[in-house]
Amino acid sequence: METEKARMRIACVAYLHGAGGAERQIIMLANGLSSLGHEVHLVVLYANRACYPIDNRVIVHDLAGARQGQEGILGRFLALRECLRSIAPDVSVHYWMQSAYFAAAMPKRITGSVVYSERGDPGDSEYRGLLGFVRGATFPRLDGFVFQTEAARDYFDGSVAARSAVIPNPVAVPAALVSDVAPKRQKRIVAIGRLAKQKNHQLLIRAFARLSSEFPEYILEIYGEGDLRDCLCSLARSLGVADRVRIIDPCTDIFVRIKEASLFVLPSLYEGMPNALLEAMSLGLPCVTTDYAPKGAAGSIVSDKWDGVIVPDDEENLSQAIFEVLSDTDYAAFLSKNARESGKRFSSEQVFGQWESYLRKVVNT
């Protein structure tokens, strides 16, 4: 019984490239486990451009800035090995495949139990080459797996599933912004995500342009940064909606900015568990999402036409779904009310409690 209550020493290994979902989630996990009384170390292995607050109880090891000339894969491996040796964790948690296969190549006395959490689509094309071979060689050496959806877990065979848990992402919406009173909706459609192929914002701009004459007062706001900014702006110009499509840099007051929008849209091609969609639902926004890969994953978050709308990732279906929500205020209010209620499933308290229980199980196995 004492073992069950023991304080764990946990190492969360992070690649803090910027304002990405995985970056946010591993920081939130470190903060959440620390708040539960555990000794948590956040090991920053590559890049340290954290855009999210780190609890002062979390012990940060910035290896990205302290490798002193050790570059590349070997430098990262050696730096991580020495850091984990000094921490001597009970368990190390990895959201990135590289650090997971590094840990798999080290003795357990250095890494503790090793848990890998898949944050994207396990069937993505990036795993068809060398990375897929590395994953196949790494997984048998790991002690546990956390998947965000049943669809991602079911991609793998029984040996992986038997050592896994399905734990959703927690939402980061401040409680003060979660209200049962629907705001007066502004004529804005919003989307959040990196300006990258995966997020498929081109599809959203095309769908919006199809509706431009029917909803002339509406604007589309896309919050994100990335290499496709110029491409998206050019597309909006070519479709005649450049004056109504706004691409806005990520900001710290994003929830305040989107709370009163009329609609949130997630047009992604693939996702692990989209933080932006969870947050929009928690805020009570009517939401439309594509049926992104892995197929069926969107259905683990949204009950179609109850607390959101799921559509195939094509222009016609997306524009039709947007039309139906914007043209029927009662339907929009129905989706909003149910989305807010469904969002409660992803509270930080519930999610971090599930993580704590699973990590205890792995450590004690």
Structural overview:
This protein has 365 residues and is an alpha/beta fold. It folds into 2 domains: 2-170 and 347-364, 3-Layer(aba) Sandwich (Rossmann fold); 175-345, Rossmann fold. The protein has 15 helices and 13 strands. The chain has helices at residues 2-5, 21-35, 72-87, 97-104, 108-111, 130-138, 150-153, 158-161, 201-210, 229-238, 254-258, 275-282, 315-326, 329-342, 348-364, and strands spanning 9-16, 39-48, 59-62, 91-94, 113-117, 144-147, 164-166, 186-192, 219-223, 245-248, 261-266, 287-290, 309-311. The protein has a 7-stranded parallel beta sheet with strand order 3-2-1-4-5-6-7, sandwiched between helices. Strands 10-9-8-11-12-13 form a 6-stranded parallel beta sheet, sandwiched between helices. Strand 5, helix 6 (130-138) and strand 6 form a beta-alpha-beta unit. Helix 9 packs across helix 13. The protein starts with a helix and ends with a helix. Its EC number is 2.4.-.-.
Keywords, separated by commas or semicolons:
alpha/beta; EC 2.4.-.-; single chain; Rossmann fold; 365 residues
